[in-house]
């Protein structure tokens, strides 16, 4: 488990490292408040320990930003506080902090609070997985995707950050089902899902949209980044050998290709999710009409 620790003094790093590293935790230490957010996006920690004494920006400003961003709001935050910082601690709870560790530090308290938070989060994730995942592929389902899509559009509008959307379809999938059976088709869907996840970033959101269609959201991604990612996805699938198990004929090895439609949203004008999905779907249609196994970017009308 990875723990990111943002401390205002050397004793935070010294004491936390001696306690957590000894227990087998993977620790990342940050002293500069200005670097906390960037490190969180890079490191993708499971838990964040935030010193309430941080300033410029303050720990509460950092916490507020974490809890307002869709990609980081689910990471549990533990505050380091003392008796003199009770008012800040109350404000921290209001902003979404999960728990706190008191100064002076006590080893068993630190370990107990981290273990409790990870146990609770693991149970929550198991329940969320039942509600948010596609039963066959393990990817997010359409309902969850649409919820996150609305959040990411709002974030893009607020901060004028680009947002890219892909619609992806397996070429000639009906032929696979008709020739090799639906069991083989299901295996292809699962293996395609695995291939997509192997290429995409942790912050990207990929869902099964329906049948053999997938939808992918790339936060803070420009046209250049989206096209690069789409081409990498297409090439990864094209160069992969897909295997379907057959009790009578042994393993069947198949070549599969995908077509991808891409649209870019710059956050400057408000567009509905349906409008953006329509743009990506139109580009996908063009990709299939122009020969399949290719990427087409929506150009507008």
The sequence of SSEs as H and E is EHEHEHEHEHHEHHEEHEEEHE
Share of residues in helices: 40-55%
The number of helices is 10
Can you give the mean pLDDT?
90
Unreliable stretches, pLDDT < 50, 5 or more residues? none
Distance between the termini: 48 Å
CATH class of the largest domain: Alpha Beta
Radius of gyration: 23 Å
Strand content bin: 15-25%
Strand order of the largest sheet: 2-1-3-4-5
**Major β-sheet, in short?**
5 strands, parallel
How is the CATH topology of the largest domain named? Alpha-Beta Plaits
Our count of domains comes out at: 2
Structural class: alpha/beta
The CATH architecture of the largest domain? 2-Layer Sandwich
General form: elongated
- Fourth-level CATH superfamily of the largest domain: Reverse transcriptase/Diguanylate cyclase domain
Number of strands: 12
Would you write up a description of this structure?
The chain folds into 2 domains: 2-129, Rossmann fold (3-Layer(aba) Sandwich), CATH 3.40.50.2300; 142-297, Reverse transcriptase/Diguanylate cyclase domain (Alpha-Beta Plaits, 2-Layer Sandwich), CATH 3.30.70.270. It is built from 10 helices and 12 strands. The protein has helices spanning 10-21, 36-43, 59-68, 86-95, 107-132, 142-159, 173-180, 182-199, 223-238, 273-289, and strands spanning 2-6, 26-30, 47-51, 77-81, 99-102, 163-170, 205-210, 213-219, 241-244, 252-255, 258-265, 295-297. The strands form 3 sheets. It has a 5-stranded parallel β-sheet with strand order 2-1-3-4-5, with helices on both faces. Strands 7-8-6-11-12 form a 5-stranded mixed β-sheet, with helices on both faces. It has a two-stranded antiparallel sheet with strand order 9-10. The longest helix has 26 residues, at 107-132. The model has no long low-confidence stretch (mean pLDDT 90).
